[in-house]
Amino acid sequence: MRAWILIKVKPPMEHRVLELLQQERRITYGGVVFGAYDLIVEIEANDTRELEEVVDFIRRLPDVLESMTLIVTREFSRARRSHKES
């Protein structure tokens, strides 16, 4: 199962939290974003128990204030363009 999690953190801790998120192997993508939330991550989990473990990991990180989990129920994919880190 795939899910996206939006994360709000204490400013200016976005880059620090992004680095910490790399410790969790089921997080397959992470990025800093503009808007109501500061970070977005993609999760690949085998079941809801694993998803809950990842969400708990994120919520326990220092400087994380809030999160919103969006579980994918149906999807399609197009080839992604590679973007260099700015």
Quick structural gist:
The protein is of the alpha+beta class and 86 residues long.
List keywords for this structure.
globular, alpha+beta, 33% strand, 86 residues, 2 helices, 24% helix
Can you tell me about this structure?
The chain is of the alpha+beta class. Helix content is 24%, strand content 33%. It has one domain: 2-Layer Sandwich (Alpha-Beta Plaits), CATH 3.30.70. The chain has a 4-stranded antiparallel beta sheet, with helices on one face. Strand 2 and strand 3 form a beta hairpin. It is globular, with a radius of gyration of 13 Å. The termini are far apart. The model has no long low-confidence stretch (mean pLDDT 94).
Show the helix and strand layout.
Elements: E1 2-9, H1 14-21, E2 27-32, E3 39-44, H2 48-60, E4 64-71
Antiparallel strand pairs: 1-3, 1-4, 2-3
Summed up, the domain count is 1
Report the uncertain regions: none
Largest sheet: 4 strands, antiparallel
**Could you tell me how far the N terminus lies from the C terminus, measured between alpha carbons in angstroms?**
30 Å
CA radius of gyration is: 13 Å
Q: Which structural category fits the helices and strands? A: alpha+beta
Mean pLDDT: 94
Please name the CATH architecture.
Answer: 2-Layer Sandwich
Identify the CATH class: Alpha Beta
SSE ordering: EHEEHE
Per DSSP, what share of the residues sits in E-state strands of 2 or more residues? Answer: 25-35%
Q: With helices defined by DSSP (H or I, 4 residues minimum), what is the helix count?
A: 2
